[in-house]
Fold Glycoside hydrolase family 5 domain-containing protein.
Amino acid sequence: MLSLIFSFLFLFPCAVYSRDRWTEAQATTWFQSQTYIMGSQYITSDAGNQLEMFQNDTWNPTLIDQELGLAESLGMTTMRIFLHDLAYLQDPTGFKSRVDALLTICAKHGIKPLLTIFDSCWNAYPKAGKQPEPRTGVMLSAWVQSPGVIALLDQTQWPRLQTYVTDVVGTFANDARVLGWDLWNEPDNSYNSTQVAALVQLLPQVFDWARSVNPTQPLTSGPFGTDYLNGIGGQVTQIQMNNSDVLSFHK
Ligand SMILES: *[C@@H]1O[C@H](CO)[C@@H](O)[C@H](O)[C@H]1NC(C)=O
Ligand SMILES: *[C@@H]1O[C@H](CO)[C@@H](O)[C@H](O)[C@H]1NC(C)=O
Ligand SMILES: *[C@@H]1O[C@H](CO)[C@@H](O)[C@H](O)[C@H]1NC(C)=O
């Protein structure tokens, strides 16, 4: 009994302090404990963007189950799946219950997803609610950035972004169904210089927020372009590489 009390007291402070970035040894141990990781990006085939996939009105777990069954039949073990701050903001409890349901479907098919929190690509002005119809022949015509540039450039909205990150990563921080967290897809893809300046302030905070809830899974952020191939890379790439538990690369 005493030892139980002591271990409780000992463990409790661990939940209060933010964990450090993983060491290279921790990253290696994590990688070696994984099954073969192979997969693709995934969005439900009836959704034009992340909001349509995760909003209640268009949420379609039956289709997700069918499609992840196809991925499983090809031997795939992961999917990169994009979440969205506005789907969370609109209905935090419902959003998290849909992410939980998604993880249950993934686990049924032996798929551990890499969940993506923010994305700087495509349409800069996301709006919750009914989404525009996709335009035929235009790649990713309905895809939306998260956060949109209005929230990126308005620091009064950053606290709600912090709540999104800490609540979502925190809720699933000990969940073995999650492979990892891709905190920001290609952060400087398509931003102008004003937007990059805001990003340089925000991105390190996003890593801090995610680490503050002590995720057992690795944090990463995939760079845009190939500047990392030429030595240390530009400022945004450096922020990504310096803060990631495991490195991910895009091209
Ligand atoms: C979510 O959608 C389901 C099925 O369409 C519906 O039954 C439920 O009432 C909706 N929930 C909310 C909170 O809108
Ligand atoms: C970048 O875009 C923002 C709108 O998001 C605009 O306010 C700003 O003036 C633009 N900056 C440059 C350098 O083009
Ligand atoms: C990234 O880390 C390297 C090595 O410690 C350091 O020289 C560089 O200034 C850091 N870059 C940023 C943007 O923090």
User: Anything to note?
Assistant: The chain has one domain: 24-243. Confidence is low (pLDDT under 50) at residues 1-14. DSSP finds ten helices and five strands in the chain.
